[in-house]
């Protein structure tokens, strides 16, 4: 029997999943979300429609790769586990296949500093991790490298990862990154790479943005 607090925590993940689809960040059940929970984490189950998902369906995992109780975790559980284990500043991981981020990822392109909100991801760009098959340790290793000193990355031929100190922050960042990807693709459609902010201005913005909205800098 779940306590009221446990039920609310699990429901927050379900609500975020439904919001991903409503916002156009994801389609169907291709996205997945995790949230740190005690000495492990909660993660969405594999292949379950969000509208049917109930708090009891969320899967609890430990950092030793074991599943607590019943349930089958998302096929992407490995990079959720590795990110949460290796990044103590991260408590929530959002993975989705938004149209514009995924279009750039198919091109194996990251997002350069064409707009100051790139700094919301923690640096002067949003990297695109090299391609690896979904659910593999190689993909997890590539994602961790792309997320070094960052709170978001693209996955080549795959999608987006956004992380945060809490679920609201991770979701907020996912929306910001998808907006940046849309802006970048619009510029590329004009036939050339856009002019970029200088390193000096990126540093200036990074200092100013530290307390902006739901953003918090990587530790």
Regions with little confidence, pLDDT below 50 for 5+ residues: 215-219
Strand order of the largest sheet: 4-3-2-1-5-8-7-6
Topology pattern, helix = H, strand = E = HEEEEHEHEHEEHH
Provide the CATH architecture. Answer: 3-Layer(aba) Sandwich
Instruction: Give the overall silhouette.
Output: globular
CATH class: Alpha Beta
Radius of gyration: 17 Å
Domain tally: 1
Number of helices, where a helix is a run of at least 4 consecutive DSSP H or I residues = 6
**CATH fold field value:** L-fuculose-1-phosphate Aldolase
Structure classification: alpha+beta
Overall average residue pLDDT? 94
Please name the fourth-level CATH homologous superfamily: Class II aldolase/adducin N-terminal domain
Query: Could you tell me the strand content as a percent range?
Result: 15-25%
Largest sheet: 8 strands, mixed
Give the % helix.
Answer: 25-40%
**Span of the ends, CA to CA:** 36 Å
Total strands = 8
How is the topology of this model organized?
Layout: H1 4-22, E1 32-37, E2 40-43, E3 59-62, E4 67-68, H2 77-86, E5 92-96, H3 99-106, E6 128-129, H4 137-146, E7 152-155, E8 159-164, H5 167-188, H6 199-209
Parallel strand pairs: 6-7
Antiparallel strand pairs: 1-2, 1-5, 2-3, 3-4, 5-8, 7-8
Helix pairs in contact: 2-4, 3-5
Describe the structure.
By secondary structure, the chain is of the alpha+beta class. The chain has one domain: 3-Layer(aba) Sandwich (L-fuculose-1-phosphate Aldolase). It contains 6 helices and 8 strands. It has helices spanning 4-22, 77-86, 99-106, 137-146, 167-188, 199-209, and strands at 32-37, 40-43, 59-62, 67-68, 92-96, 128-129, 152-155, 159-164. An 8-stranded mixed sheet has the order 4-3-2-1-5-8-7-6, with helices on both faces. A hairpin with a 2-residue loop joins strand 1 (32-37) and strand 2 (40-43). The model is unreliable at 215-219 (pLDDT under 50).
